[in-house]
Amino acid sequence: MPLRPNKKAEVRKNSYKVGVDADEGRRRREDNVLMIRKNRREKSLQKKRREGLQAQQMPAKLYSSAVEKMV
């Protein structure tokens, strides 16, 4: 068995478990991280919007219940 790989062994080695190249993998990871950030930001904004709406509705409810008690 020769210690130096021959042409056939080199071709076989290069074709074994051919996956995604480094640039493609990096691009996919960056896209995934970007998507995760966008989703997290959108959820945070939705939460703030809901809290803002509830805060606006709360004084109106308190006011209407106070008016009903007076009548």
From TrEMBL:
<dbReference type="GO" id="GO:0006606">
    <property type="term" value="P:protein import into nucleus"/>
</dbReference>
<dbReference type="InterPro" id="IPR036975">
    <property type="entry name" value="Importin-a_IBB_sf"/>
</dbReference>
<dbReference type="InterPro" id="IPR002652">
    <property type="entry name" value="Importin-a_IBB"/>
</dbReference>
<dbReference type="GO" id="GO:0061608">
    <property type="term" value="F:nuclear import signal receptor activity"/>
</dbReference>
<feature type="domain" description="IBB">
    <location>
        <begin position="1"/>
        <end position="58"/>
    </location>
</feature>
<keyword id="KW-0813">Transport</keyword>
<keyword id="KW-0677">Repeat</keyword>
<keyword id="KW-0653">Protein transport</keyword>
<protein>
    <recommendedName>
        <fullName>IBB domain-containing protein</fullName>
    </recommendedName>
</protein>
<dbReference type="Pfam" id="PF01749">
    <property type="entry name" value="IBB"/>
</dbReference>
<comment type="similarity">
    <text>Belongs to the importin alpha family.</text>
</comment>
